[in-house]
Specification:
6 strands; mainly alpha; 3 domains; about 400 residues; single chain; three-stranded antiparallel beta sheet; 18 helices
Length: about 400
């Protein structure tokens, strides 16, 4: 028998009813072709290239249906002849129907939302796919024993528990159609495959919109409103960010001002410490000079007493150390001239100035270097020693102070 399928193809089918008919073919007709069974004969044609494919058990269990391409049609007719009556009505039920459009009584089961997406009720989906409404509902009843279809949809982000009350989203409906068209095994329906072929080229959502007569202008208005709302929200968000940025900048400016004030205070404290240190150094120098002055006065007093008593004063020998010798020269000069404490300071200042002029150096700079290197309260005489000019300073002192 020949039938036209839902794709418009003309296909020949061989149908046998019941075990008796198959047994009759296997026992009486197949041996004539050299095969023990119809299945072996069809497999042989597949191997030889005469038959592209064949299917066994496409029709209900009580019937055996064989798909016979044109190239094997004549061989099948020769094999079967007129000995078997093929029920055309039964075979036609095994052929997938053609779905050109959604039936009017099922269109009411669809709903188009404002954003252009659609939903379909469980009952409408079951009717369109040719399956029982209860069977489809059981997939989404929930619980631990969820079906494979329900788990697949859940994995793709759908809330299958709401399909009964809120309807099935169009994208989810597309997955359900694919499942019942190709993946449900013996529960697959030709009607589901026909629905799948109807929307395969343009997509399930576009197909449903087209079938329901939905106008794109509605979507355009919806998009305009959505874009307008989004732009308003974006403007408000940008204004909020700008205000926040200004507040943060003001806080940063305040913090920078506070930091500058702290740094200024620390600089003032450092300067105060430096001035105080210089005063302490000057005070220590004056104390040392005063101590030397007292010692010299005591020495003069003793010499005066010895002179009154007729005792010849003993003049201490000059020290061998150059530094001590330089100090000794200055002190003797001051005491011999009777210059006192103020004259003592002026004598040292005059001597230091002559040493700097003759040796082309700066004792103050060298003193500060010694202080930076860790020497506690260095004096200019320490700077002279550091420069290696102590012997030169003694010679200059002898010349300046007119010491023989």
């Amino acid at each position: 028998m020949k039938f036209e399928d839902f794709r418009g193809r003309v296909i020949a089918y061989l149908s046998t009813t019941g075990k008796a008919s198959r047994k009759k073919i296997n026992a009486d007709l197949c041996p004539e072709k050299g095969y023990s069974t119809v299945k072996n004969w069809l497999w042989a044609m597949c191997k030889s290239g005469e038959l592209d494919r064949w299917s066994d058990g496409v029709s209900p269990k009580s019937e055996y249906l064989y798909f016979i391409p044109d190239v094997a049609e004549s061989a099948c007719a020769e094999l079967v002849g007129d000995s078997i009556n093929v029920g055309a009505e039964k075979v036609a039920k095994s052929i997938a129907p053609v779905i050109n459009s959604i039936p009017d009584d099922i269109k009411s089961e669809f709903t188009v939302k404002s954003d252009g997406s659609t939903t379909i009720t469980l009952r409408g989906a079951a009717r369109l796919l040719g399956i029982n409404h209860k069977t489809l509902s059981e997939h989404f009843s929930g619980g631990q024993n969820s079906s494979k279809l329900a788990k697949t949809l859940t994995g793709k982000g759908f809330e299958v528990g709401g399909f009964g009350s809120q309807g099935i989203p169009d994208i989810a409906f597309g997955f359900i159609v694919t499942y019942y068209a190709f993946k449900a095994g013996r529960y697959s329906t030709p009607q589901a495959e026909a629905v799948h072929d109807a929307f395969e080229a343009i997509g399930v959502r576009a197909w449903i919109r087209n079938e329901l007569g939905w106008k794109p202008q509605t979507l355009a208005k919806t998009i305009d409103l959505a874009v307008s709302d989004n732009l308003n929200a974006l403007v408000l968000s940008i204004q909020g960010l700008a205000t926040s940025a200004q507040s943060q900048q003001a806080m940063i400016n305040d913090q920078q001002l506070a930091i500058r004030e702290v740094i200024s205070g620390l600089n003032y404290i450092g300067q105060s410490i430096q001035v105080h240190g210089e005063k302490i150094h000057e005070h220590e120098t004056k104390i040392v000079e005063f101590d030397n002055y007292i010692q010299q006065q005591e020495s003069l007093r003793k010499d005066a007493m010895r002179s009154v008593l007729g005792v010849k004063p003993t003049v201490p020998a000059p020290p061998k150390d150059s530094r001590a010798q330089l100090i000794h020269l200055v002190n003797n000069y001051v005491f011999a001239k009777g210059l006192g404490k103020e004259g003592h300071s002026k004598t040292w200042a005059h001597l230091y100035r002559d040493i700097e002029l003759r040796c082309h150096c700066s004792l103050e700079v060298e003193r500060k270097k010694l202080e930076a290197n860790g020497m506690k309260s260095p004096k200019k005489i320490d700077a002279i020693e550091s420069l290696g000019l102590i012997d030169t300073a003694v010679a200059i002192a002898c010349e300046v102070l007119e010491v023989a």
